[in-house]
């Protein structure tokens, strides 16, 4: 027995109206700016150095590396570029397979295709919504074989060149287990933490943040992320050689020289512009405030849903902390989830379903995959709620 969709919609709408103090439509996300970004931008404009490579870019990189707990950060024009560079720097190429999930924004899967590789979708967990460590173990054990030079997919003979899990909506996936499975199989791990800046796991040893578990981690700063640079991303790693190569490729592979323009390979124009980094540094000062505001909202949603039947506010699993990037509820019944979206839209609160799983999308439906029951189960039931901070 569940509460009526109307009652659940009304409870969510009340939380939103009370939190955002507006009778206007309430969208899923909205960035928060004030005079500090205006000042940062005008300082950069006055300096004349707006393109990639200015001092604010290095400062933004150092700030991020220190925060996430890795040695190197390479700032890029968007996280998709950082994912593309990660795959290229880890040697993923034509006809390779990359193990990933279908429950994600499309960017990581597109990046796999950019290097000529194929995504192989495995299932996710219903609680984290991210890659299932169990599904990964099963895939490696039952469908792959280890050879001297790496892991191969038995049926097709293709090399399995990397594993790319995603922390969905800021909820950490079971990355420690995935990391140890990848380690045992000598499988490079690219951690898509685009949505998970500040999310992580706590133990007696302290807290370890998402983006620091993989050979490479990637975070996004696009307009709907926790902090934004307008458009931006970062590649995080402890591997100095990988960071150097990623930086080089991101700056069109130009050989450093005072005045000559020579290029030593096919690079990309992927570096983060100084203008963007300056906005990122101004936003960085507000990270604590943003997180606190989002936590307050999460607690209100959670308490409003606590007494409802047939629906549950989604929280991080034990020992994990979410950055509350996009908060969401999961319904027992699919028809209730879609009625809820329609009801909240009628009331001016613009909730959304999850992304269409990529094995069903026209873009990636031909990709190989394992059984994906949890991915499909979640798609029909999860609804994203307005999640921007009030500063
Ligand atoms: C899971 C995930 N990966 C990658 C990206 C790509 O980020 P960007 O828009 O910075 O390229 C996003 C963007 O929202 C994302 O949600």
Strand content: 15-25%
CATH superfamily of the largest domain: Type I PLP-dependent aspartate aminotransferase-like (Major domain)
What's the overall geometry?
Answer: globular
Distinct small molecules bound, one entry per kind? pyridoxal-5'-phosphate
Report on the structure:
It is a single chain. The chain is α+β, with helices and mostly antiparallel strands and 391 residues long. The chain has two domains: 5-31 and 287-384, Aspartate Aminotransferase, domain 1 (Alpha-Beta Complex); 35-284, Aspartate Aminotransferase, domain 2 (3-Layer(aba) Sandwich). Helix content is 38%, strand content 16%. The chain has twelve helices and 16 strands. It has a five-stranded mixed beta sheet. The chain has a four-stranded mixed beta sheet with strand order 1-11-10-7, sandwiched between helices. It has a four-stranded antiparallel beta sheet with strand order 12-14-16-15. α3 (55-68) crosses α9. The chain is globular, with a radius of gyration of 21 Å. 51% of the residues are buried. Pyridoxal-5'-phosphate (PLP) binds next to α4 and α5.
